[in-house]
Write a structure and sequence with these properties.
The chain is globular. 11% of the residues lie in helices and 53% in strands. Strands 1, 2, 3, 4, 5, 6, 7, 8, 9, 10, 11, 12, 13 and 14 form a 14-stranded antiparallel sheet that branches. The chain is mainly beta. It has two domains: 29 residues; 246 residues, Lipovitellin-phosvitin complex, beta-sheet shell regions (Roll), CATH 2.30.230.
Length: 280
């Protein structure tokens, strides 16, 4: 009798496992990006926040930035595995500490001197394979790197991880930023993804005669709404927020002696909002 019970329990367990596996397989989603080779995609990106810089025991200086640009995304060439995209700012405004550094909202031909043109090679799941850009005061490449690179198959509640290889501040080499992505399922016909981070930095860099200790925290977050009908992002809202302390030791080139360390602190708190826009 006991043997029969064990067999029955085993059969029930197998049935539950099979049902769960079958349900999980049926709920798998396949996400990919689609860029037309004939029609450019246009996105409006708003940003606001600040970057603060301060040496030790000094009052921090905040650089308050805000603005808006329309980005034109042109699919130059499509191979079997990737898109080759050109991303150009066609209209926009950039303000620093309340002063307008650039305003090309009216001009149809003026080229932005603040936001550089970008070229990226991206596979159809969103992984950026190569990228290059011109020179400019402020670039959106870090924002583009945070957009989701989808796994092969995705189910509700699934998590995966991505890393931004750099956050370009020009005057400081920032550590890699790591993010967790969670698929939340459908919301009003769109697929919703959360972006989370609770990353601590503790590393050391050496370049020529400069040794730099880096420590800090990344507590950024965001939300992505993806339209599976068009295979494009409907809205991306990302809040970059991280605090980094640098302690630099500069040694004379011909000796092993180190000078007094130079500590400084950088705080980044910038929000981005990206959404498609129709351009006549």
């Amino acid at each position: 009798m006991r043997k029969i019970k064990i067999i029955l329990i085993f059969i029930i367990f197998l049935g539950l496992f099979y049902s769960k596996a079958k349900l999980s397989a049926s709920n798998k989603q396949v996400f990919r990006y689609t860029f037309s080779p004939f029609t450019p995609a246009y996105y409006k990106i708003f940003f606001n926040g600040y970057i603060s810089y301060s040496p030790e025991n000094a009052k921090p200086h905040k650089y308050i930035i805000n603005g808006m640009y329309i980005l034109k995304i042109t699919n130059i060439y499509t191979s079997d595995k990737a898109y080759n995209l050109k991303i150009s700012p066609v209209k926009g405004r950039f303000m620093l500490d309340g002063h307008t550094l650039e305003d090309i909202t009216v001009s149809e031909t003026e080229v932005s001197q603040i936001v550089p043109e970008m070229y990226i090679e991206m596979n159809k799941r969103g992984k950026i394979i190569k990228s290059r850009q011109g020179t400019g005061l402020f670039d959106f490449m870090s924002f583009l790197e945070i957009l989701p690179c989808f796994p092969q198959n995705v189910v509700v509640g699934q998590r995966w991880y991505q890393t931004i290889p750099y956050f370009n501040l020009h005057f400081a080499k920032m550590p890699k930023l790591k993010f967790t992505y969670v698929y939340m399922g459908k919301q009003n016909g769109l697929d919703k993804f959360h972006i989370l981070s609770n990353q601590f930095f503790h590393q050391q860099e050496k370049e020529n005669n400069i040794k730099t200790k880096i420590k800090g925290i990344n507590f950024s977050n965001g939300r992505i709404l993806f339209d599976s009908q068009t295979d494009l992002i409907k809205q991306a809202k990302v809040h970059f927020k991280f605090s980094v302390y640098f302690i630099a030791n500069i040694s004379p080139i011909k000796t092993k002696e180190e000078n007094n360390p130079i500590p400084y602190h950088i705080m980044v708190d910038i929000s981005f909002l990206l959404s498609p826009v129709q351009i006549p």
